Amino acid sequence: MFNPGQLLAYGWNDTLPFDDHTTEGSEPGRVIRVDRGRCDVATSSDIIRAENGEHALCTGDWVTVRASGDTTVVADLLPRRSAIVRSAASGRSDGHVLAANVDTVVIASALDTDLDLGRIERLLALAWESGARPVVALTKADAAENVSTAVTAVTAVSPGSVVMAVSAETGDGVAALTALIDGTIALIGPSGAGKSTLANALLGADLLATGRVREGDHKGRHTTSHRELLPLPQGGALIDTPGLRGVGMWDAADGIDKAFPEIDDWAAQCRFRDCSHDTEPGCAVLAAVERGDLPERRLASYRKLIRENGWIASRADARLRAEREREWKIIARGHRRMYRTRGH
């Protein structure tokens, strides 16, 4: 019987389907950091450096590793049960995985600056789409005024999620947040939101570098430059991510619906099934805006995310079509060469 050893500290549980993926000479592990084709993997007894091989890996992945000559390589990648995916920062039509096999996504937003409700809604859609449970942590509460007002405003745009104010500096709210989260936790948010400071408070030690925000625009300095999985003292593990200056939707229709459930409920009452909630007669969503039941800002945020998600999806479809056409052309050229050879 396999002894998980130190993997227990990195989220091991008996439901992981390693029996279907472990072969002779390989052993289970979890990716704790990825860097230029290589990764650090926690195994039952050690943390080793391995080659990614043919796998596109991400922090949080469960893998098997085996020795290959003088190196260690990732032999297999287990299916991800959840993944935080955004559109690639390059603008390409593929997705960029931020973290894998996450149970709770903690969205950090600083209270010492103006709250960006649209950004919080965007991150909530990303979190819901991942399959994990989102929690909103309003950080730097010690430096803010009218904290309760801010919590109320964010709660109104975070249906189904817990919203709490915390201060890593004073410790206020940290114990409550610790009691709320379990399993593997991913900490996401913009630069300057105090993610690394909050992460250190959850970890119980200053393991991550922190830095001050710029005075001019209150933006952070990206003190976290990579994603790393670290064990939490109370159990579970934490993935701290670099500050997200831009978060694009990628195949996130379900996540958007979960972030805006009231719009989905009203949409079911629209006269037309394909109502776009723009100018159609009998639109229950527009009627809710007119009555004051739905803030116009929130509908505008919903429309923006839906448009963006649709645009990315159309680009992905076009890319897939182009790839299929390219493959068929290669096959056709091969057939023509074969027939010409037969003729000779």
CATH class of the domain at 83-240: Alpha Beta
Q: Any idea what the CATH architecture of the domain at 83-240 is? A: 3-Layer(aba) Sandwich
Number of helices: 8
Please summarize the sheet with the most strands.
6 strands, mixed
Per the CATH scheme, the topology name of the domain at 83-240 is Rossmann fold
| Assembly state of the chains shown | single chain
Strand content: 15-25%
Quick one: CATH superfamily of the domain at 83-240?
P-loop containing nucleotide triphosphate hydrolases
Binding site for GTP: 139-142, 189-197
EC number: 3.6.1.-
Enzyme class: hydrolase
Domain CP-type G: 92-247
Task: Describe what this molecule looks like in 3D.
With 344 residues, this protein is of the alpha/beta class. Helices cover 32% and strands 22% of the residues. The chain has helices spanning 117-130, 147-156, 174-180, 195-203, 253-259, 261-267, 284-291, 296-343; strands spanning 26-35, 38-42, 47-51, 62-68, 71-77, 83-87, 95-100, 104-110, 133-139, 162-165, 184-188, 228-231, 237-240. Helix 1 crosses helix 5. Belongs to the TRAFAC class YlqF/YawG GTPase family. RsgA subfamily. It is found in: Cytoplasm.
